[in-house]
Amino acid sequence: MTLYLPIAEMSVSVITFLALGATVGFLSGLFGVGGGFLLAPLLTFLGIPPGVAIATSTSHVVASSVSGAMTHHRRGNVDVKLGLVMLAGGLVGTYLGVNFVKILTARGLFELTVSLTYVIFLGTVGTIILFEGINASRKPRSPGGSSLRKPGQHSWIERLPFKMRFPRSKLYTSAVPPVVIGMFVGFISAMMGIGGGFVMIPALIYLLRVPTGLVIGTSLFQIVFVSATATVLHAVENKSVDIVLAVILIAGGVLGAQFGTMAGEKLRGEHLRVLLGALILLVAARMAFDLAVRPSDLYSLALVPGAP
C-alpha cells in the first residue's frame, strides 16, 4: 500500500514508514530521547527532502515524547517545576532555530549545514556518552545506589544568581543554567528536527545534578512542548511539515514508545548510556559517509519547501 505525500511530493510505502515510526518510538521510550536524531537522517536516506524530513520529524517527536512522558509522570518521575523553567528558554530557542532554518534555506545552505552539524555534534556527544557509560559499567555499584552529588561538593553553577528551589529534585540552584540548557535544546531541536534528549540528559545529570530517576521523565516533559512549538513554527514559517507522513510516523511511534519504556526499566542506566552512545555514533558515521561519497546526481532542480 502506498500513499502520496503532498509536501514531499512523492509516493511511499505505508508499511515501511509505519515500521520506521515504531522503531524510532521504541528507541525514544528506551533511552528517554525524542528520537528525531535518528528519524530525520533515516527519512533522508529513504528519499524524503531534508527540509521536510526535519520539520516532520518534530511532529513524531511530540507524539513519542507525550506517550513516554505520561508514563513517567504517572510513576512520579517528572520534576514539573524544573521542566517549566527549561521550557521558558526552550521556546525562545525554538523560535530562533526555525528562523535560522528559514535563512539557511533561502541561501541554499540548509542541507550542507545540517549534515555537518549532525556529524560534528552527534560524533562528539555520542563519544562522550559511550565512554562515560563504559566507565560507569566497570565500577562496582554501591549497596545504597550511586549518587553523583557528594556532601560539600560545590560548583560554579551554585554561585550563579536567581536561585530557585526544586523540591522534587531536592535542588536549590540558579535558574540560569536550566534556562540556557532549554534554549540550546530548543534551537537545535528546530534546526535538526530532534528532541534534544541526548543533550539534555547529560546536562541534567552532570551540570544540574538531578537525581537519575527523574532525568528521563523531566527530559521528555520539556521535549513535548519544545517539539510541538517547532512543528507549528515550521508549518507556518517554512511550509515544510508533511501531515500525511507525520500521521504515518506517529501511528507507529506511539505504540513503539510504550514498549520502549517498559524495556528501559529492565536495563541499568550505564548500559542504556552505552547503547545510546553507540547508536548516536552509528548515525553520525553514516552521515559522514554520505558527505564524503560523490553523489549520483551532481545537480538538483527540486524546489525546497519554504524557499521564496
UniProtKB/TrEMBL annotation:
Sorted UniProt keywords: Cell membrane, Membrane, Transmembrane, Transmembrane helix
UniProt key word Transmembrane helix: yes
Superkingdom assignment: Bacteria
InterPro entries: TM_pro_TauE-like (IPR002781), TSUP/Inactive_protease-like (IPR051598)
GO cellular component entries: plasma membrane
Compartments where found: Cell membrane; Membrane
Pfam families in UniProt: TauE
Membrane topology reported for the UniProt record: Multi-pass membrane protein
Transmembrane segments: 12-40, 82-100, 112-131, 175-208, 214-236, 243-262, 274-293
Similarity-based family: Belongs to the 4-toluene sulfonate uptake permease (TSUP) (TC 2.A.102) family.
Alphabetical list of PANTHER family matching this protein: MEMBRANE TRANSPORTER PROTEIN MJ0441-RELATED, MEMBRANE TRANSPORTER PROTEIN YTNM-RELATED
Name assigned to this protein: Probable membrane transporter protein
Gene source species: Hyphomicrobium facile
Lineage: Bacteria, Pseudomonadati, Pseudomonadota, Alphaproteobacteria, Hyphomicrobiales
